[in-house]
Fold:
Amino acid sequence: MNENDNNEHKALQKTVTKLVSLCVAMFVFAVWVMPPMYDLFCEVTGINGKTASQYQAMSADVDTSRTVKVKFVAINNSEMPWAFKPKDYTIEVHPGQAMTTHFIAHNPTSKIMVGQAVPSMVPSNAANYFHKTECFCFNRQTLAPGERAELGLRFIVDQDLPKRVGTIVLSYSLFDVTEQSPDEVESKAQEIANKSAQASANTVQNSREIKTLEFM
Amino acid sequence: MAHGPAKGFTRWLFTTNHKDIGSMYLWFSFTMFFLGGIFALVIRAELFEPGLQIVKPEFFNQMTTMHGLIMVFGAVMPAFVGLANWMIPMMIGAPDMALPRMNNWSFWILPFAFALLTSTFFMAGGAPNFGWTFYAPLSTTYAPDTVTFFIFGVHIIGISSIMGAINIIATILNMRAPGMTLMKMPLFVWTWLITAYLLIAVMPVLAGVVTMMLMDIHFGTSFFDAAGGGDPVLFQHIFWFFGHPEVYIMILPAFGIVSAIIPTFARKPLFGYSSMVYATASIAFLSFIVWAHHMFTVGMPLVAEAAFMYATMLIAIPTGVKVFNWVTTMWKGSMTFETPMLFSIAFVILFTIGGFSGLMLAIAPADFQYHDTYFVVAHFHYVLVPGAIFSITAAVYYWLPKWCGNMYDEALGKTHFWLAFAGLNITFFPMHFSGLAGMPRRIPDYNPLWADWNMISSVGAFLFGAAQLLFLVIVIKTIMGGRKATARVWEGSHGLEWTVPSPAPYHTFTTPPEIK
Structure:
């Protein structure tokens, strides 16, 4: 191989190395950079209506000069069989005032089921001014067969909410995540088993009831 | 150099010759073109009149999905790679591609990818049925189990394209004959260089998005699953970040082909060579910042809608430069209308129509009306069929005498052109009207309101299909025999590929030519 061929070979190797690296970089970009970037972008701008996670409540002044209407919407995703609805469809709040409301969920099936609520807000520019100090949507919710639950939501509307926003609509889509949550199902099953064991224990040895409960 | 082609079938298995590999790519693409065409005719037969006649809705969905996938990844892309293999080394005076062994691999994994993809027809659950854009969660949570075959098929297709692109760039950058500067390269070489960069930039993104689907389906992640904290809209963003450059991957080489053919038959040099190069580069750049115009209706903020709308409209400028240059090349030229020229002129006119409907779709507020209707179907078929397919057809007629040494039958060629031209317009033009009247895409049954347009479209589709059978006959007939072609083939042809004899010898430019 003469000098010239060798140089050509090196130049070729250099080109190929560069192109392969570009390729790998783009794959990394697609899988490890784009999704977090998307989440970050949405979080900063609030544009996909996702509300932020748990808010640490600060003592804030209540702005009684202004009233904001908050409407709640509950939606079941595809074939989620639970009954799911807000207890109050509309609440009027003053910005800065902490407010508690509930959603009612009922599992009509004969199986233990796990649900996850995913929030969305309209107008999307209100999302950054709607703070949740407690929300059932932060965790998966497990319901026993036939169980009915009141799921709590505590929130504060920020005083800096843009003046144009008079009404906020908060919707929750409830997803069936039973298949993805074997742990939750397991612990619920355990709980039910304990309860029924307890119930039978109660009828036989009524006197020990209090002690048993203390040990629980 | 008496090193000829090997004998027997193993010649094709083990070949590293760019001409052999180019031919294999072209035949593979031709096969896939007919397969995708049959799927299209099943769709058109079902839509001939309202109601469900021929196929079940589930199968109809598999047809629309597989038609798109096969045509994009099986027909158009391999055809361009085949042309690149055949022509680029001859156009730049190189003896072969830079990485011949890898070239063999990048072709031979393709048939396996498509075997994987089409084998799903014979499996429980059937073939992919979620559209060629495979939006999550339709393609994840609600997909048939065969989606995994689809994912691996796409991976292999991606690897093949990436290897092909690396090879093309390496060839163009390292193997040009002495004296051939970048700005002396034929435009087909230029457009392919830019296309290859687009491929390397976005095929890994496609691989990434299907990998994320795989993880969501089998390994419990939630990239696109809202219940687990993911977001289905993220899928659309990543997909179209790949998808928009992808549509230019399917059109930039076509620009190169037409820029070679029009000067030949207008007997004038190409008008505005350097502006063509810059326009191509601008289009490639813009393709990365317009992706969200495919998803105006997902609920983006106004600012984003406006930004993507204006960026999209900006593409009309470099594209307009190109159309202007082609028309100006023809202006006052001594034109003759051989088959490749007819296809090229039709390309210029019909692609421009497709470009105009693209501008209509780019208007964000109007797009809410057009979105997911047959207007979109009309638009992208107007850019892809007279764009990609016509240019590939023109290229085959233009270079076939160089490849096999025989002239095709001009009368048959022109018949093919007029049948295809009529078939195409009868098929796709009425779709503008059914779309504007509100007909949604991907439905097997429809409101009788759209019956007339659909019936016309279906008639045109079968005409177009028949025209392609004639094309197959012409190609085979030309390979079998015919009037011998000269080295130059065309009176007005220019370029290194016309300096070698016809048919082109198995090895060309083993010593580099001098470029003045």
User: Anything to note?
Assistant: The first helix of chain A runs from residue 3 to 45. Chain A touches chain B through 33 residues (CB under 8 Å).
